[in-house]
Amino acid sequence: MTDARIPRALTIAGSDSGGGAGIQADLKTFQELGVYGMSALTAVTVQNTLGVHGVYPLPPEAAAEQIEAVGGDIGVDALKTGMLFNAEIIRLVADRIRVFGWERVVVDPVMIAKGGAELLRTEAVDALKRELLPLAMVVTPNIPEAEVLAGMGIRTRHDCREAARRIGGLGPRIVIIKGGHGSFEEDGDQVVDLVYDGTGFTELSAKRVNTVHTHGTGCTFSAAITAGLAQGLSAFDAIQSGRLFIQAAIEDGLNLGQGQGPTNHWAYNRRRQEVLQ
Ligand SMILES: Nc1ncnc2c1ncn2[C@@H]1O[C@H](COP(=O)(O)OP(=O)(O)O)[C@@H](O)[C@H]1O
Ligand SMILES: Cc1ncc(COP(=O)(O)O)c(N)n1
């Protein structure tokens, strides 16, 4: 029998039939990072590299009961939320996080898929802000999501900092505004994720990969952070190691299907093995 104390992580998110985003991306990432993965499904999407072709939300109680089933039996060292779709699901998920007293919580405030499909109802944004963000150790909006949460446009690096401050005011301990959707003038060929911890800012820069195969980048990044938290890393170390994981996954992205392909969840470990050989 292997060590019973393998780190355990839970993803509360939607299913992506194409396997590049959602719970599929999360579970692949947990597995690659040596963490036992569990899922509470909120919705089934009909999805491939060409986009989202259908969304079938589950009854809100289904998510709540899945969380109770794994939380009460197996235990959860860290969790992430992804696609939550509506306010009722958000309320029940937030309630279960409070009841279990979980603190290592990553909220990826998924709103709109890269192809434009709505993964969170507009009227649910308030519930996300009021119910879930106060429970988050780390929240990971992309720039359009940060604009919605902060209630302001982001056109400059200065705007980005102001938005991070406003989102920090909603309760999460750390805000990361991800730079995948565009660079500011001074960023050059770098992609910059802005990290705000309530007092100061850190910019995590990496080379921007020139690719269209970025389906599931946000899911994979937040799952990698969650895996780090499940293993007991500090939030900042988990974010830095998540950044290394996503960079490798994008650099070695998979040209699958006819549209926007997924990232490569093996890339990080394959590179580490190559270094060891
Ligand atoms: N072209 C790229 N090159 C390198 N890193 C990227 C690229 N696109 C996104 N990323 C990284 O992927 C992660 C997810 O960012 P982003 O794509 O903005 O999120 P989302 O999938 O939520 O829209 C961030 O760490 C971001 O810096
Ligand atoms: C079920 C599901 N959840 C999340 C996303 C967001 O994907 P991305 O990380 O590319 O923004 C998605 N396309 N599908």
TrEMBL record:
Domain Pyridoxamine kinase/Phosphomethylpyrimidine kinase: 16-264
InterPro entries for this protein: HMP/HMP-P_kinase_dom, PM/HMP-P_kinase-1, Ribokinase-like
Gene Ontology molecular-function annotations: kinase activity
Keyword Kinase set for record: yes
Pathway(s) where this gene product acts: Cofactor biosynthesis; thiamine diphosphate biosynthesis; 4-amino-2-methyl-5-diphosphomethylpyrimidine from 5-amino-1-(5-phospho-D-ribosyl)imidazole: step 3/3; Cofactor biosynthesis; thiamine diphosphate biosynthesis; 4-amino-2-methyl-5-diphosphomethylpyrimidine from 5-amino-1-(5-phospho-D-ribosyl)imidazole: step 2/3
Pfam family, one: Phos_pyr_kin
Coiled-coil region(s): none
Record EC number: 2.7.1.49, 2.7.4.7
Signal sequence residues: none
Transmembrane feature ranges: none
Enzyme class label: transferase
Family: Belongs to the ThiD family.
NCBIfam families found in the cross-reference section: HMP-P_kinase
Protein name per UniProt: Hydroxymethylpyrimidine/phosphomethylpyrimidine kinase
Taxonomic lineage of the native organism: Bacteria, Bacillati, Bacillota, Bacilli, Bacillales
